[in-house]
Request: fold
Amino acid sequence: MNTGSNEPGEVAVASDGSEVDGTETDGARDQRGLGSRAPEFIKARRMLHLSWQVGVFAVGLAVVVVGIVLLPLPGPGWVIIFGGMAIWATEFVWAQLVLRWTKRKVTEAAQKALDPKVRRRNITVTVIGLVIVAGLAGIYLSKFGIVMPWKIEE
Reply:
């Protein structure tokens, strides 16, 4: 690709992986430095930036608390918690580091789960578990029939 071209549809790519027109590729986004993602006019004023950080923290905290409440309930609790962490990561370095660590661990786990030996083991354990559950259900049905437990007479 000719980086000096002015033809539409062509994009020059810098050596760090970011595009010259200001947008970023996935590789450049992952390697971006740590720190605040607040707009420059907010970072230029200390009180405004501090207010911005308090607001980001409050919104992130609310999202994380909702995720924690949803953990024992049916719902995407962990997804919401990581969404709150992503909100915090727009402003706080510690949250960015936690998200990078989490992303790395999830990627490692996904690669490990795709290993044929691990997949065979997981399928075997699942089948054995289903056979045990079916056996227990059969024993229950042979003993009590299809009667709800709260209607069993002694």
